[in-house]
Amino acid sequence: MNIGLDVMGGDFAPQNTVAGALLALSEISREDCIVLIGKEELIAAELAKNNANPSLFKIVNATQVIEMSDKPLKAFQEKTNSSLSVGFRMLKSNDIDTIASAGNSGALGAGAMQSVHNIPGIIRPCAATTLARENGGYNLLLDIGATTDVKPDVMAQFGLIGSIYAQALLKIEHPRVCLLNIGTEDTKGNLQCQTAFRLMQDNKAYNFIGNLEPRSIFSNEADVFVTDGFVGNILLKQIETFYHLMVKRNYKDSFITNFNYELHGGSPILGVNAPVVLGHGISTPLAIKNMILLSKRMVDTHMTEKLKQAFSQYADNF
Amino acid sequence: MNIGLDVMGGDFAPQNTVAGALLALSEISREDCIVLIGKEELIAAELAKNNANPSLFKIVNATQVIEMSDKPLKAFQEKTNSSLSVGFRMLKSNDIDTIASAGNSGALGAGAMQSVHNIPGIIRPCAATTLARENGGYNLLLDIGATTDVKPDVMAQFGLIGSIYAQALLKIEHPRVCLLNIGTEDTKGNLQCQTAFRLMQDNKAYNFIGNLEPRSIFSNEADVFVTDGFVGNILLKQIETFYHLMVKRNYKDSFITNFNYELHGGSPILGVNAPVVLGHGISTPLAIKNMILLSKRMVDTHMTEKLKQAFSQYADNF
C-alpha cells in the first residue's frame, strides 16, 4: 500500500509531518510505503535533522504550497504543483492508495471532489470522528465540518455513511444511528432537524433510533451521531476545549485523555471515491502518525468500496 | 416587589419549587414577596411538610397544570386556569413584577409572547446564560434555546440584547460582542453566520468584535457570544455533560463548579415586555432558589426598560 502524506500541510509543517511519518514507520509493515509529497529539499533537510535514511520513504517533489489562508478551490486549481494537487493526481492515477493532510481543510475537500469526485449517489461528503464512550468503546460523530450548510436529505445520507463506517471501523453489525438534537422527542429541534428526522425515520437503509441530546454522546445509547458540519465542528471544538482545561489542571484519566485530538489523528472525508484523511492544522508528530495510520485503516477496511456498494444497493432510499 | 413562581412547573414540582421558594426567603428583603401560583392544596401540603408558615408567601390558586409533554401554545391557550396562564395574567396586570418557571419551556415562551408580547422592534426574544471565565468574571451566551430557527437579522439583534444585558448584569460599559463560529476569519461559518457577521459588522448599536470559536467561551476575549438557539442549546447541554462527567469523577474546583446549572438557576427570556425567567426542568431546590433570585435581579436592574430604551434608540439599525 502507498500512503500519501502532504508534507507541507499543517501549521508546523514540514517539521511535524516528517517527524510523524518517522513515528508511523514502526507501526506499519514493510510492504506499506509512506509517500512524502512536498518540497524535496525541505523533506531532505528534515530527514537529515532526524538522522533518518531517505530510502525509508518514497519522496515526490512538489514545488508549491497551499497556505492555510488560501481560498480552497482557487488554490487547488491554480497551484497545480502544490503538494495537495500533486497528491490528488497521484491518488486519481492510483500511484497512492490514500492521502492524508493536516493542511487547508477546504482545499483538501475541494481537491477530493475535483479529482476523485463523490461516490455516485452521495450528495455531499462528510467528515467523521470517533468519540470515546465513558464505559469503553467508541461512538461516531459526523459531519464534523466537511460541509457547513446541508439540507435534510444530506443529513439522511450521513446516517448511511455513518452506519457503514461504524460497521467497518467499530465492527458493529447493526449500528444504531441517531440524530443529535436538543431534545429526545420526535418533533424536537430546528426545522432542519425536524425534516431530517422524518427522512431518517422513513429510511430503511440503516437502523435509525431517533433523537439524542449531547449528554448521550459519551454513552452506549447509539453508535452514530448525525449532525451538520457546523454544529459538529462547534461540538468537537468544545470537547477539545474541555480537554485543554483539564490538562491545564493536571487532571488525567483514560477517558478524558481520549478527548485529545492527537490520538485520533484526523478525520476521514467519507463519500469520495478514494480514502482521504484530514488532520488538525496544529498536528503534532503524534497526531500526524495517527493520521497516517487512520489513512491506512481506511484502505485496509475497504471503506470506499463499502460506501459505493451501500449507496448502490440503497439508491432508491435517497 | 412581587415575584411570581410557577409552583407546578418542573419535573419535581411542587416539592422542589416550594422548597426552593423557602430557601430564597432568606436572601430577599421583607419588602419582596414570593407569589406561589399553583394548586393551593398541594402548596399547603408542601409548606406543612416543611413546617413553614403559609403567611410567608402570597398563594394564588390555579387549578390546572401544563405538563412537560403538552403542546406549548395550545396548552397555554386552552388551560386558562393553569399556573402559567394565571401567572401571565397577573404579570400583564402588574399583580406580579416577574415570573419564573421550571416547567414547559415552550409554553413559557408562548405565554410570554401571547400575554406581555415582544418589546417593540425585537423580532424574536432569546434566552441568555452566563458562562464563568477561567480567570474570573463571566461571559454571556445567547440564544440558548428560546428560538431554534432564526434568520441572520434576528442574530444581529441578539447582539444588542446581549450587549444591554451585559451592561446591566455584568456591569461592563462597552461589552465586546462576538459571533460564535467555527473559525475566526471574517468569512467563516455556515451561510447564516456569514450573513449575520456582515449585519453585525455594519451595526453601530453595539461593539462587534468578529468571530470567535468555542475555545474562547471561557476566556476574556469577548463579553457576549451570539449564536442561534439550536447551537446555543447544544453547547450548553455539552457543558452540563462535562460537569456531570467531572462530578462522577469527584473532581472539584471552583471553575468547573460553575458549570453546575443549579448555581445559575435559569435563563431570562430577553425581549418581552416583562421579566420572565426559565428554569431547568430538573431543577433542584437550590436551582429554584437561584431562579427566583435571578427573577428579582431582572426587576432590580430594570432589564425590560433598558431593552425598550435601546431598541427605541437604535430602531434604525435593524
Structure description:
The structure is a homodimer of 318-residue chains. Helices cover 42% and strands 16% of the residues of chain A. The first copy, chain A, has 318 residues and is α/β, with parallel strands linked by helices. In chain A, a hairpin with a 5-residue loop joins strand 10 (267-270) and strand 11 (276-278). The two termini of chain A are 34 Å apart.
Please provide the count of β strands of chain A: 11
Give the class of chain A from helix and strand content and strand pairing.
alpha/beta
Oligomer: homodimer
Mean pLDDT of chain A: 95
Most extensive chain-chain interface: A-B, 37 and 37 residues
Brief summary of the model shown:
By secondary structure, chain A is an alpha/beta fold. In chain A, 42% of the residues lie in helices and 16% in strands.
